[in-house]
Specification:
Elongation Factor Tu (Ef-tu), domain 3, RND_pump_MFP, OB fold (Dihydrolipoamide Acetyltransferase, E2P), seven-stranded antiparallel β-sheet, Efflux RND transporter periplasmic adaptor subunit, alpha+beta, four-stranded antiparallel β-sheet, MdtA-like_BSH, conserved putative lor/sdh protein from methanococcus maripaludis s2 fold, signal
């Protein structure tokens, strides 16, 4: 009876194991469809325009001061006042300078007469060569003193070296001031500077192409619309399609990095628009058309960081592209560009209309069957 029992147990175990294999096989054969959020690659103009915070500065600015000490007796300027080149801005008490000039003129006249007399005597050989040389040297010294006295009188007047606006007045009338003490600050009106900080990678893209040709820079000011309309402001339109902007010209850029950052200062010039009161120190935005440097015609798009996958083995950067035909994913090697507020630039590897996994790219695999999720509010 024992052999019969053992045979029965062997048959039952064989059936049980066969059932487990069939169950595991059934589980393995069931396909897993993973839901994913997709986004479509586009090449809109907004992605091609890069915006930099900018500061407005005077293209020409000078801190004006007297070259001599004295009492300030004339300073009737106010901040914001427009002045013309050569206009008298401030004046010191010039009485001592005038007296010194009169004394220098008298000494010069006396030396000139004495030299002329001794020159005639020397020609007649009535005086020695030494006396003649002394008279000539005395005349030169008197002439130098005369020129110096004239300069000292001129130094009592502070005139505008160029046309502009009085930015700041530091002193008041009837003060005793020292030489080189700043009286006022004058800023030019013809041109203003627009200054931005750019990363080194942006400058590296410029080979034999000028900055203006490469990026078509333009500046945008934040003027209230109602006020602008009241003043007759008509928004301009740049080549990139941006309204309310003004084209600027590249002026110069620093060759050393700014302290505390790996960026370089780039300066642009702008003729102040008549319909806006643009003052140094104001904030603005500088727009660079990045599509102008995309000579290869490759689409430049911006993807969120959650769509980027980096392989530790190969060092390549990939995104997952959705294939609508078989509803699977394929890995695409891409080239990264600059980091932006809404993601990172993709310079190559994708084309218009491609759909890529936007969230959770690290959790999917190649040829995995997926189901696109619709973007909804709060999801």
């Amino acid at each position: 009876m024992k052999p019969a029992l053992l045979s029965l147990l062997a048959v039952m175990m064989s059936v049980a194991l066969t059932g487990c294999d069939e169950a595991e096989s059934a589980i393995q054969q069931s396909a897993v469809v993973r839901p994913v959020k997709l986004m479509t690659v586009n090449d809109s103009t907004s992605h091609q325009i890069r915006v930099f915070p900018a500061k407005i500065a005077a293209s020409q600015q000078a801190d004006l001061a007297f070259r001599i000490n004295g009492e300030l007796v004339k300073l009737g300027l106010i901040e914001g006042q427009h002045v013309a080149k050569g206009q008298l801005l401030a004046q010191l008490d010039d009485r001592d300078a005038k007296n010194a000039l009169l004394n220098a003129e008298a000494n010069h006249d006396l030396a000139a007469v004495d030299f002329k007399r001794k020159e005639e005597l020397y020609k007649r050989k009535l005086i020695s060569k030494a006396e003649f040389d002394t008279a000539r040297a005395t005349l030169k010294s008197a002439k130098a003193s005369l020129y110096s006295a004239r300069d000292q009188l001129a130094y009592t007047r502070l005139e505008a070296p160029f046309s502009g606006t009085v930015a700041k007045v530091n002193l008041d009338n009837h003060q005793m001031i020292q030489a080189t003490q700043v009286v006022l600050t004058l800023q030019g009106n013809n041109q203003i500077d627009v200054k931005i900080q750019v990363p080194e990678s942006l400058l590296l893209t410029l080979k034999d192409v000028s900055f203006d040709e490469a990026f078509k820079p333009a500046v945008r000011f934040h003027a209230p619309k109602t006020l602008a309309l009241e003043k007759g402001f008509t928004p301009t339109l740049t080549s990139s399609g941006q309204q309310g902007t003004y084209p600027v010209q590249y002026k110069e850029h620093a060759s050393t990095v700014s302290p505390g950052s790996q960026t370089y200062e780039v300066v642009f010039s702008l003729t102040p628009p008549e319909n806006l009161n643009i003052l140094p120190g104001m904030s603005a935005e500088l727009l660079l058309d990045m599509s102008a440097v995309n000579t290869s015609g490759q689409v430049i798009t911006v993807l969120p960081l959650t769509a980027i996958v980096r392989s530790d083995d190969t060092g390549e950067t990939n995104v997952w592209r959705y294939q609508s035909g078989n509803k699977t994913l394929e890995s695409v090697v891409v080239t990264l560009g600059q980091v932006r507020a809404n993601g990172i630039e993709i310079l190559s590897g994708l084309k218009l209309g491609d759909q890529v996994v936007a969230v959770g790219a690290a959790a999917v695999k190649s040829n995995m069957e997926v189901k696109p999720l619709r973007w909804e509010r709060g999801v």
